[in-house]
């Protein structure tokens, strides 16, 4: 048998030992403070000790109220949040700028959420299709895809690509729409580049189109690149004198010069001075080595005539002439 220890009742203090006293602090707020009157406090310095005790109690109460007030206004973090990486100022703000979509897209989205329907156009679909994925609206997403594929036009595909530039790497639906537009352009590249809308393409989207297997020649690609680059420079202010060369260096990096006939390399590309003579020479040498094109002596003479002012290049053309003579 296990016996429990006898329970001793808590000591009973005399009623005069503990009581509550209503005291007021410096701010005029009344508070209840425990009034402990021990025998020691009944001495000559009892009043001073009593005042110190009450002051300490009020200080603790005020600090407690301050902490509760701060806790009420602070935003608490979940246990999973990394407090060191969280900006509390942003968590406590009450107004937000929705940077995901423009205001027109957001208004159309609100209309769809309220009424279950909204107008669809090729101009508004890029934003709506991303919003539909962002807010998990499968019916709106499907409607956007269906409408876009049925109503693609050369007059709007360039602006659609520009709008999708900031989204296609974040949303699968935007990436799929970009691929659908590029497939639409593949067989219509010549018609697209005959319109002025392509001049408004961003550089990344323009390069994305040119990097595909289009139904246009490489020399036509070069002419389109030069036209686009000149337009961008005309629309810019405080342009560096070498800006055209820099842009063309980026655009022509993947241009297949070896597929361009020698006479077009010399008569179309060489005079623009946007591709170095050295690169053109290397292309002509490769064409002569592989027998892809027959390079005639007249081509060499034309190269010399066009680069006569550049004495440093004369020896290079002599190398090409020697190569031609050896192959013959």
Automatic annotation (TrEMBL):
Start and end residues of each BACK domain: 173-248
A Pfam family annotated for this UniProt entry: BACK
The organism's place on the tree of life at top rank: Eukaryota
Domain spans labelled BTB: 89-151
Protein name per UniProt: BTB domain-containing protein
Provenance organism: Larinioides sclopetarius
């Amino acid at each position: 048998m296990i016996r429990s220890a006898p329970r001793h009742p808590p000591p009973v203090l005399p009623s005069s030992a503990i009581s509550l006293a209503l005291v007021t602090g410096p701010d005029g707020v009344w508070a209840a403070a425990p009034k402990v009157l021990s025998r020691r406090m009944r001495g000559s310095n009892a009043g001073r000790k009593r005042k110190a005790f009450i002051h300490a109690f009020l200080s603790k109460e005020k600090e407690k109220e301050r902490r509760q007030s701060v806790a009420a206004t602070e935003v608490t973090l979940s246990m999973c949040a990394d407090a060191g990486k969280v900006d509390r100022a942003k968590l406590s703000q009450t107004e937000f700028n929705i940077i995901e979509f423009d205001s027109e897209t957001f208004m159309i989205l609100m209309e769809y959420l309220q009424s279950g329907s909204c107008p669809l156009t090729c101009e508004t679909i890029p934003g709506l299709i991303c919003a539909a994925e962002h807010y998990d609206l499968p019916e709106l997403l499907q409607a956007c895809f269906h409408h876009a594929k049925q109503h693609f036009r050369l007059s709007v595909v360039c602006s659609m690509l520009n709008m999708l530039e900031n989204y296609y790497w974040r949303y699968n639906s935007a990436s799929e729409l970009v691929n659908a537009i590029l497939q639409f352009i593949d067989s219509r590249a010549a018609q697209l580049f005959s319109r002025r809308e392509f001049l408004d393409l961003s550089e990344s989207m323009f390069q994305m189109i040119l990097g595909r297997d289009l139904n246009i020649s490489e020399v036509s690609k070069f002419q389109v690149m030069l036209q686009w680059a000149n337009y961008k420079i005309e629309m810019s202010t405080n342009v560096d004198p070498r800006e055209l060369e820099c842009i063309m260096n980026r655009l022509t990096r993947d241009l297949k010069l070896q597929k361009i006939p020698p006479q077009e390399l010399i008569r179309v590309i060489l005079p623009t001075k946007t591709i170095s003579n050295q690169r053109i020479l290397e292309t002509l040498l490769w064409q002569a080595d592989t027998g892809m094109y027959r390079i005639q002596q007249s081509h060499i003479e034309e190269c010399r005539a066009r680069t006569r002012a550049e004495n440093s290049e004369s020896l290079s053309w002599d190398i090409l002439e020697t190569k031609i003579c050896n192959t013959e």
